[in-house]
Design brief:
alpha+beta; TIM Barrel; Immunoglobulin-like; 4 domains; six-stranded antiparallel sheet
Length: 588
């Protein structure tokens, strides 16, 4: 075994064992290496480095770095579980093959004194139902799996779990999401959750219990079919005023780090070197997983104590480094609380534009407004809402039926977002009243559909002033969302206040009005005028129930001079529609 030790002594590669000799396509091939000897820091590649060179059936080579690994296990009684070490440390290599056939690999142990090579071994890759890694198809302007299927992220933030029983609680959240067709979560390597470098470990050494926790959560997400956006850094660790956590940051000079001030993290050569070393470890340990869909370098970096002229070069350098060490070339993003400097989205390795939207009671007007189309047009990159919410302390109390969540999901997609907006308050707003059902209807509507940069906003005008509508699409296929303006959080609050008033009167024995369930005024007989379609063509229209996730009505309609006027079914809350141009032989 390789133990941490103050002084180097002879290191020997004693054994390499593969977890299995037959590996399904796009699944993990894992090697375990047993190494004897000692080294002062197993996380320092200048002291010791394990790597495996994999050769595909076509003769292409991919090098994967190995990583130091301490196994852990859950112990304790139900409700009182804790994590404890289980066995001796080993080294591992994780790799995901992307071709069927016989693969070969060679393992090397590299130290300053010598390079040892383990004899070449082979394994066979067979067919599977996996779809591979998610990639940004620049030509089509869409996210796709390697097998060609489109990918539309639908989910929420699950940025951290509780300190008590994180596996049980986090696992419950994942199961709830998976059962309702959600497929995407945003996860932080938060200082109090998954951050590997802590005040206790110091810079350059990694908390193995947290690494094991991330292993386990990622594996559970793989089983559930949920993909991750993994955020590597958060603003509070570099701030003394906004969510301040600089006092716990191991890069802080006061804790033995090299940075006198938070902003030094961006420019200090040693800080940059050590963070890039950490990135290499993350890629070697978790880069194998297709369910790790996107890297996010920094959460809301504008809340950190940084200057734009230092932040932009750091993002450029770090994104280039990450791209160079990630053999699977997954997309990279970052985020800001406010407007990001335009130079950030121009960076060549910044693949996706992320927005955070808060305190917007007119959420549809914001998310389906001009901002996203303008960013798409300017930078020719996907845009998505990485966080949205309202008032943290009161969302659950004022909106227990999920109006804000529902509106954010539907309006973001017809507004041009590359996926459904990700709600922030997963633990206090979504989970307690069980609002997961809103993901299910959205997932049913968008299943099998494609979002791309070729789609443009479609002007939607309603004949009834109580309705508002938005759309996106191409002349061949369009998507509409129509909302009852009277269905708002304010209207719902007014109903609840009246309900409470009548119940109080009832309790006092006074005359009271029996109120029906909450129901805004039903809008009947409206028409919608949609522009941006083919000049003279017939379209099939599917009207969808946005709460049950099923088709409520169908019709065939004809455009006139690129404009379509259609009868809208009655609208209680909101509804969605698909406009599908008929084939030439169906045009009649």
């Amino acid at each position: 075994m390789l133990w941490a030790s103050p002084a180097w002594s002879g290191i020997q590669l004693d054994a390499v064992q593969a977890a299995r000799s037959t590996v399904p396509l796009f699944e993990r091939c894992e090697l375990t290496a047993r190494i004897s000897g000692s080294v002062s820091n197993p996380y320092d590649p200048s002291e010791v480095r394990l790597e495996a060179v994999f050769q595909s059936p076509q003769g292409e080579s991919t090098t994967m770095e190995g990583f130091y690994y301490q196994p852990f296990e859950l112990a304790g009684s139900p409700g009182q579980e804790f994590v404890r070490a289980a066995g001796e440390p080993v080294w591992k290599v994780r790799f995901t093959p992307r071709q069927i056939g016989r693969w070969g690999y060679e393992v090397r142990l590299i130290t300053p004194q010598r390079t040892q090579t383990w004899p070449r071994q082979t394994f066979v890759v067979v067919e599977s139902s996996r779809k591979g890694f998610i990639q940004w198809d620049r030509r089509a302007g869409t996210f796709r799996f390697e097998t060609g299927e489109p990918f539309i992220p639908i989910g929420e933030n699950l940025s951290w779990g509780p300190s008590h029983q994180p596996l049980r609680v986090y696992g419950q959240w994942l199961r709830e999401l998976a059962s309702q067709r959600a497929n995407y979560v945003r996860v932080w390597m938060a200082p109090w959750f998954l951050r590997l470098e802590t005040k206790e470990t110091g810079v350059g050494r990694y908390d193995q219990s947290r690494a094991w926790l991330l292993d386990t959560l990622l594996e559970r997400s793989e089983s559930a079919g949920i993909f991750w956006q993994l955020c590597l850094l958060e603003h509070g660790s570099f701030s003394r005023s906004q969510d301040p956590n600089w006092h716990n940051n191991p890069y802080n000079q006061a804790l033995g780090g090299m940075c006198r001030l938070p902003q030094d993290f961006l420019t200090h050569p040693k800080a940059k070197e050590m963070f890039q070393r950490l990135v290499r470890y993350m890629v070697s340990r978790w880069g194998y997983s297709p369910n790790l869909a996107m890297w996010e370098l920094f959460n809301e970096a504008d809340f950190g104590e940084f200057k734009t002229e230092e932040l932009v070069p750091w993002l450029d350098e770090t994104s280039r480094f990450l791209r160079s060490v990630d053999p699977y070339q997954r997309p990279i993003t970052t985020s800001f609380h406010g407007d990001a400097p335009k130079e950030v989205w121009r960076l060549p390795m910044m693949d996706a534009i992320q927005l955070h939207v808060y305190d917007k009671r007119d959420l549809p007007g914001t998310l389906a407004g001009p901002t996203i189309p303008e960013l798409r047009r300017t930078f020719q990159k996907p845009v998505f809402i990485g966080e949205f919410g309202w008032i943290a302390e009161t969302m659950r109390q004022v909106d227990d039926i999920g109006i804000h969540l529902h509106d954010g999901l539907w309006s973001s997609l017809v507004g041009g977002s590359a996926g459904g907006a990700l709600i922030w308050y997963w633990d206090s707003y979504v989970h307690p009243p069980g609002l997961y059902r809103h993901f299910d209807a959205l997932g049913r509507f968008w299943r099998g559909e494609t979002l791309s940069l070729q789609q443009r906003p479609m002007a939607v005008q309603l004949s009834d002033q109580d309705l508002a509508g938005w759309g996106i699409g191409t002349p061949q296929r369009g998507y509409l969302w129509i909302k009852n303006r009277r269905h708002t959080i304010d209207q719902y609050l007014a109903y609840r206040a009246e309900l409470a008033k009548q119940r109080l009167r009832q309790a006092r024995g006074e005359a009271a009005t029996e109120l029906a369930a909450y129901s805004p005024r039903l809008v009947r007989g409206a028409t919608a005028t949609v522009r941006g379609l083919d000049w003279v063509s017939r379209y099939r229209i599917e009207w969808w129930d946005t709460y049950r996730g099923r088709i409520a009505a169908r019709d065939v309609v004809q455009t006139r001079w690129g404009t379509l006027t259609i009868k809208v079914p009655e609208v209680q809350f909101d509804l969605a529609a698909k406009l599908i141009k008929l084939n030439w032989w169906e045009q009649g």
